[in-house]
Amino acid sequence: MFIIIAGLTKAEAENYSNFTPFGSRGIFQSAAVLFFAYVGFDAVSTMAEETKNPGKDIPIGLIGSMTLTTFIYCMMGVTICLMQKYSNVDENAAFSVAFEAVGMKWAKYIVAFGALKGMTSVLLVGAVGQARYLTHIARTHLLPSWLARVNEKTKTPINATLVMFVATAIVAFFTSLDVLANLLSISTLFLFSLVAIALLVRRYCVRGVTS
């Protein structure tokens, strides 16, 4: 919220001209890469057994998180475009450079702190969700059963969490960020498509009845 409010105080409407400088191709290319920013909302569903009222809490969490995330990202996109022309936006530190360019050098430190906190939250949510995916799969015996072990006190999957942290650290250490972002976006879109198809199959196909 600080970025949006502080950034809009330095907004210049003329910077918002030429709304699609790279055409429709640029829009679709950006959307494909930025899709990873929304990854994680599905992790809410993996927490069903750890919530008091999953029938009510899970839908609220899913819809609420997606609505809020979409609104904030749209407002941040509008803000950066009003602060600077698209050609001047730094691809590595967009808001930090933009605030420095408009004379608010002190704000870049707040942005940097927020970015670090944001990355920590993303890593936590990703680890929590993926660990529970492994746990559920292990319960179906498609993975080793020791991955389904749950701590008696905290009721959280211990082994699955440790395996996920180690695997994530190894992949992140040896793979470039661009490759990871593209791979994550492609794999997520593919998996969500499979889920949609699976729901249709479950809805219209009955085992032993539908051919």
Automatic annotation (TrEMBL):
GO MF annotation terms: L-glutamate transmembrane transporter activity; L-lysine transmembrane transporter activity
Alphabetically ordered keywords of this record: Membrane, Transmembrane, Transmembrane helix
Recorded topology in the membrane: Multi-pass membrane protein
Matching entries from Gene3D superfamilies are given as: Amino acid/polyamine transporter I
Key word Cytoplasm present = no
Q: Does the keyword Transmembrane apply?
A: yes
Where found in the cell? Membrane
Q: What does the entry list under GO cellular component?
A: plasma membrane
Q: Where are the transmembrane segments?
A: 29-48, 60-86, 106-129, 158-177, 183-201
Top-rank taxon, per record: Eukaryota
Which InterPro entries has this protein been placed in? Answer: AA/rel_permease1
What's this protein's family per the entry? Belongs to the amino acid-polyamine-organocation (APC) superfamily. Cationic amino acid transporter (CAT) (TC 2.A.3.3) family.
What name goes with this protein?
A: Cationic amino acid transporter 1-like
